[in-house]
Design goal:
mainly alpha
Length: 117
């Protein structure tokens, strides 16, 4: 025997709405005074400037370290060539890699922001 009962949808569908809980006497949002907003924006701008300055200082230190490594590779390569051993391909690749890193860091460290907003 087959069960031929049909399921019927209710005539009206109740929609449940999410509402945030309210405490009596509590505001649903907070409003900052304009002076607090200005103070917050100044602190945020100062923090961003300090971070940019730190990154540029770090880039300059990396440039100095890479230049030092480049000089060590150059001196080592010169000594090896004068001893008749020739330069290794690894040193040539490292030399080219350090030149790329130095030029990229110089571009980062000494670039200026185009839009002064």
């Amino acid at each position: 025997m087959k069960n031929n009962k049909k399921i019927r949808a209710p005539e009206t569908i109740c929609v449940e709405e999410d509402q945030p809980p309210h405490k009596e006497g509590a505001a649903t949002h907070s409003v900052m005074s304009p002076s607090k907003v200005d103070e917050y924006e100044k602190r945020l701008n100062n923090a961003e400037k300090a971070q940019r300055l730190w990154l540029k200082d770090f880039a300059v230190h990396l440039i100095v370290c890479c230049l030092g490594a480049l000089m060590v590779l150059w001196v080592t390569d010169t000594i090896l060539i004068n001893l008749g051993r020739g330069s290794s391909s690894f040193q040539k690749e490292m030399f080219e890699y350090l030149k790329l890193v130095i030029s990229t860091l110089i571009g980062f460290a000494f670039s200026s922001k185009l839009n002064n907003s």
